[in-house]
Amino acid sequence: METIPSAGATIENQTIEGFDWGEADLTDAIFNNCLIADAQFGGVTLEGARFNRCRILRGRFARADLRDTLFEDCNFADPEAHAGLSLAYSRLDQAVFRRCDLSFSKIESCELHGLTLEDCNLRGAQFRRNDFTRNLGRYRSSAAATLRRCNLHLADLSDISLPGCDLAQSLFREADLSGANLEGADLRDTDLFGAITSGAKLAGADLRGGELSGLDITALASRDGLKITADQQYALLSALGIDVTAD
């Protein structure tokens, strides 16, 4: 007998069809090994919910509450349609995605303070006009997010603001980071080969151990205090057209 999704319910090994997700209160619900396709999650409340080994194909979340929601080993990507998760005007404060396929996802105008993405595939994903900050007072705000060991190949991260955030060991090959604010960010062991970084702010960022071939530091909006290792200087100098030779 199938379990109807409801607040606090545990749903396992089901294909969920015909359920009206709109405005549903599913606080603290648990979904294990479920298939959900073409669902419209308008106004749904999933605060504290848990999704494990689920396939959520072509899902569209709008004005949804996903605070403290956990997704582990979930697949949101439809490679044939080049479509992924769609999120707009939703709250994902402290939400966590681990080992999820979020390829081709579109995340727009969402509240993402404290968002964690670990070991996720975000190839071709788009981030637009999102807010990773929390106000600390009249004149202060703080950004918080973790994108660790993620594949962001060809992702659109233009104008993203992640100062001081943890992006270590992620792959940004051919990603669009133009205008991004990554000042003070942890970018150790990242791969920035072919990334578009014109106008990006990298002052105080830690790039030690990263792949920096082609990075033009003259095109950055800020770079004071940028941290690199001695062997990385050759890649940066070569990008400036300086021929580095042995003594």
Question: Can you describe this structure?
Answer:
It is elongated and about 75 Å long. Strands 1-2-5-8-10-12-16 form a 7-stranded parallel sheet, with no helix packed on it. It has a 5-stranded parallel sheet with strand order 4-7-9-11-13, with no helix packed on it. The protein is built from 1 helix and 16 strands. It has one helix spanning 233-239, and strands at residues 10-12, 30-32, 35-37, 40-42, 50-52, 55-57, 60-62, 70-72, 86-88, 96-98, 106-108, 115-118, 126-128, 133-135, 141-143, 145-148. The longest helix is centred in the C-terminal third of the chain and has 7 residues, at 233-239. The mean pLDDT is 93. β14 (133-135) and β15 (141-143) form a beta hairpin. By secondary structure, the protein is mainly beta.
- Largest sheet descriptor: 7 strands, parallel
Overall SS class: mainly beta
Low-confidence stretches: none
Total strands? 16
User: Helix count, per DSSP?
Assistant: 1
Distance between the termini: 76 Å
Helix content estimate: under 10%
Radius of gyration: 20 Å
How much of the sequence is in beta strands? 15-25%
